[in-house]
Design goal:
The protein has 258 residues and is of the alpha/beta class. The chain has a domain of 179 residues: Rossmann fold. 51% of the residues lie in helices and 7% in strands. It is built from ten helices and four strands. It has a four-stranded parallel beta sheet with strand order 2-1-3-4, sandwiched between helices. Helix 1 crosses helix 9 and helix 6 packs parallel to helix 10. The protein is flat and about 65 Å long.
Length: 258
Amino acid sequence: MSKSPVFIIGSPRSGTSALVQALASVGYRGYKEGNFLPLMRIIERAIDNHFTAFGKPNPNRLASQIDSRQLKDRIERVFKELVDNAHPHPLWFDKSGHAEMIPAVPILRRLWPESLYIFCKRRAIENVASRLQKFPAQNFERHCSGWATFMSAWRAVRTELPAEVYVEVDQQDLLRDTETISAKIGELLNLAPEQVGTLVKTFKSQRPQETTKGSAIRLHSLESIGWSEAQLLTFKRYCGAEMEAYGYGAGPEYYAKR
């Protein structure tokens, strides 16, 4: 039996939409965009902040008499009920490209103990370049900090996850070594060999979203990408540490050497 539910997480412009198409091709059902479950984490953080300010022991204050953990547990159950009702299928996925989704993974594992995770990633140079074209209204600094936030959050979360409940999918590897990546996803989800074959066909026919034709597979270097000196400094300030932590090189030859 294939496993479910599957949570597709990762930075925007990192191939998450390609995973939606692929899972749908092998029988999973879900929405092209989730972005509901991150609200659970936002609410819980607001509760923590509120009770830090007003929940200290005080017999004359109502907030001091409320168990914040019990409050959060009940809210979590409401989220689970709503999400389960929205996915009346034996196999379902959620794709939420929201930064709060990654810190929510421990909550998701409590609510759905059998849940699995596919983390989509992409080197910062290509990711930021794609973000700039797709979302030009957002400034350069925001795109850089956004990428770094996703990547650092995932590094923190994955240390607590058993290896058998997640797989990381690099967009370039998905494009350049589709069979290997499909096999890894198939092993994670316990797919039949013919389903893995369907994944391969889907990935090859439905390429990741491109801002311009061929942009998904195009590689850059910091020297040739055309950013200003100020932008390069901003990029290195926000993305340098995470680039190093993930072993990403700064030139286009990085993937060729893997």
